[in-house]
Amino acid sequence: VSTPRSSGLPARLGGREPAQLADVLERVLDKGIVIAGDIQINLLDIELLTIKLRLLIASADKAKEMGIDWWQGDPFLAGRQLEDRIKRLESEAGIEPNGGSRREVQAEDERQR
Amino acid sequence: VTGSAGRPDEGSRGSALYVYGIVRAGDEIGQFDAATQGVDASSPIALLREGELAAIVGEVPLADFGQDVVMERIRDPSWLEEKVRAHEAVLEAALPRAPLVPFRFGTIFANEEQVRRMLREHDHLRSTLDDLEGTFELGVKGFLEPERAAAEAAQPEQGEPASAGRSYLLRKQHDRRLAEARAELQMTLGTESHEVLAAAARDARANPLQRPEATGRSGDMFLNGAYLVEAARESEFREALAGLESRHGEAGATYELTGPWPPYNFVAAEGGL
Fold first, then answer.
1. DSSP structural state of residue A113
2. Over pLDDT 70: what percentage of chain B?
3. Which of the residues A15, A42, B145, B264 has the least number of beta carbons within 10 Å of its own beta carbon?
4. Smallest CA–CA distance from B233 into chain A, residue
């Protein structure tokens, strides 16, 4: 049961469209009242993260479309993904036992299609 | 709301209380429906009243939000996006019902008693909430379209056919002049727009501009403003914005209005207890 506010808050602008991630991050991570809780989230780290995410944007997929992928090599953001990358690189390397490159294998596949 | 199963440093078992924001205890904000999911989707959102204030809280598992774990979790952009959006969604559900003081992401207490203690220590927020009554935060972003701005700038000089070297230098000079004119136009638009909007609002903040990668827009941002708008003066604010749009549309300026937001930009940072 909600009691509408007499002040008459306008409906969310832009209808049901979700807010842009950059706008939400900027507010939720950088603004709002800061009161120390019992669990400390290091705000310096969060701020650093915000700056990076701000560079990054709407979504990682969108960024990839735009050709922005530098964070994938960034140890701060990539974190545990690094392990996956190493595994992937290793398995890619494993595909070329006789000096044939993976690229050639793919090209071969495409020719057959 | 139940208490916590333990102190936050006890490892990954048990839970803690995540605080989204504060409202006045006397405001009838009603129940949060089950569709309003917090940062932990399985825990309901509730009000915890103490004196004249009430905290909007939800339980969070220490397996995600414990001291050692949460710093790891926030490094995962998709985890963080989900949690940050959930934080915002809870506050948006409360926003139309009562004035509220939004908390920054990740304010977590060990148990109910700790939240009550925080509310007692911050009883001055009652007057902040009274001041916020009848207001809401709107965001206005201003963008300058690249091609229009270029057309605004000086044309290259006409004259006798130039040598290749000279025409290269002229082109360089022209490009530099374009960039300067554009930067100046952005500065002017930003300053004027913010002043005009601020005059129609109770309070205003000009925030750092977002990069094109973050906005997903081709134009350059010249304004990233937040405005505390009084409901009684909402039409004045909208007219001020419409005035800017019609005055600067010709020069390639467009404006994007967002919100209403919880008043994130208008609650002072307290910097700890």
1. -
2. 87
3. A15
4. A7
